[in-house]
C-alpha cells in the first residue's frame, strides 16, 4: 500500500511540474521570439541530403509582416480566428460528420491550434498529441492576445522545404521582404500551407492559381483587420 502511495505522489509531482513548466514557457513566449520548433528539428533529421541540412527562419515582428499575408492566412485557414476562443466548434462538428460518413478525412484546426502544435508539439496524429494540443491552445488563448498568436503563427509555420516563417517564405518564393508582399503573393503563400512540401507558391500550378483567386476574393470580404476589437469582444 505504501508503495502505491509513493508511486502516486511521484506521478503527481511529475504532473505538477510539467504543468508549471508548460505555463511558464507559454508566458515566456508571450514576449520572447520562438527560436525554433520541434518540426524544424524533425525535418532536419529526416533530411537525407547533407547539403540541405538546416532551415531558413528569421523572426520578425507582426508590424513588419504584410497585412495581406495576415488576411490571407485567416481567409484560407481560419475565417473565425478573431471571434473564437481557440476552437471552431461548428468546423469540428462538420469534420466529425464527414469522418463518420467515411468521407475524406477533414481537419478542423484553427490557427490557435496550429500554433500550439507547431511551437510546443510534434506533427503526429494521435490522441495524446491532440489532447496536448487542446491544452496548449487553451493556454495560449488565455495568456496571449490574438495579435501575439498570429505573430507566433506567421513566424513559426512551415512554408516550404526548410522554410519557416513569413520572412523566410517571402524571400524564398518572391525574393522580397514579408512587409512588401502583394495580395496575390500573400495568397500564394497561404495557398500552400496545407502541404508546403508538395505545393509551390511560385511558380504556381493551376490548382494554386485557383486557390489564390479564391483567397483574394475572401480577403475582400474580411475588411479591416483589427485585433484589439476581437480581444474586447472576447472579454
Structure description:
By secondary structure, the protein is an all-alpha fold. It contains 11 helices and 3 strands. The chain has helices at 2-28, 38-46, 67-77, 89-100, 111-120, 127-143, 146-156, 166-174, 183-191, 206-222, 227-234; strands spanning 56-57, 158-160, 163-164. Strands 1-3-2 form a 3-stranded mixed beta sheet, covered by helices on one side. Helix 1 crosses helix 6 (127-143), helix 3 packs parallel to helix 9 and helix 3 crosses helix 10 (206-222). The longest helix is centred in the first third of the chain and has 27 residues, at 2-28. The chain is globular and about 65 Å long. The chain starts with a helix and ends with a helix. The mean pLDDT is 88.
Keywords:
single chain, mainly alpha, 235 residues, 60% helix
Strand order in the largest sheet: 1-3-2
Shape: globular
The computed structural class is mainly alpha
Name the helicity range. Answer: 55-70%
Question: What's the layout of helices and strands?
Answer:
Blueprint: H1 2-28, H2 38-46, E1 56-57, H3 67-77, H4 89-100, H5 111-120, H6 127-143, H7 146-156, E2 158-160, E3 163-164, H8 166-174, H9 183-191, H10 206-222, H11 227-234
Parallel strand pairs: 1-3
Antiparallel strand pairs: 2-3
Helix pairs in contact: 1-6, 3-9, 3-10, 5-6, 5-7, 9-10
Short description:
With 235 residues, the chain is mainly alpha-helical. The protein has helices spanning 2-28, 38-46, 67-77, 89-100, 111-120, 127-143, 146-156, 166-174, 183-191, 206-222, 227-234; strands at 56-57, 158-160, 163-164.
Amino acid at each position: 500500500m505504501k508503495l502505491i502511495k509513493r508511486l502516486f505522489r511521484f506521478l503527481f509531482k511529475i504532473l505538477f511540474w510539467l504543468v508549471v513548466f508548460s505555463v511558464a514557457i507559454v508566458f515566456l513566449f508571450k514576449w520572447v521570439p520562438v527560436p525554433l520548433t520541434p518540426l524544424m528539428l524533425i525535418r532536419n533529421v529526416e533530411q537525407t541530403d547533407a547539403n540541405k541540412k538546416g532551415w531558413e527562419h528569421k523572426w520578425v515582428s507582426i508590424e513588419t509582416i504584410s497585412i495581406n499575408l495576415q488576411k490571407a492566412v485567416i481567409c484560407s485557414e481560419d475565417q473565425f480566428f478573431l471571434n473564437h476562443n481557440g476552437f471552431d466548434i461548428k468546423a469540428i462538428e462538420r469534420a466529425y460528420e464527414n469522418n463518420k460518413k467515411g468521407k475524406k478525412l477533414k481537419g478542423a484546426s484553427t490557427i490557435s491550434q496550429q500554433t500550439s502544435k507547431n511551437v510546443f508539439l510534434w506533427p503526429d496524429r494521435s490522441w495524446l498529441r491532440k489532447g496536448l494540443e487542446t491544452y496548449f491552445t487553451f493556454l495560449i488563448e488565455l495568456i496571449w492576445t490574438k495579435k501575439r498568436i498570429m505573430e507566433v503563427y506567421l513566424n513559426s509555420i512551415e512554408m516550404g522545404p526548410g522554410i519557416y516563417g513569413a520572412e523566410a517564405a517571402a524571400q524564398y518564393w518572391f525574393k522580397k521582404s514579408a512587409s512588401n508582399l502583394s495580395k496575390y503573393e500573400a495568397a500564394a503563400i497561404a495557398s500552400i500551407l496545407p502541404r508546403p512540401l508538395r505545393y509551390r507558391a511560385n511558380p504556381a500550378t493551376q490548382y494554386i492559381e485557383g486557390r489564390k483567386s479564391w483567397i483574394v476574393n475572401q480577403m475582400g470580404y474580411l475588411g479591416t483587420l483589427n485585433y484589439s476589437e476581437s480581444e474586447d469582444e472576447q472579454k
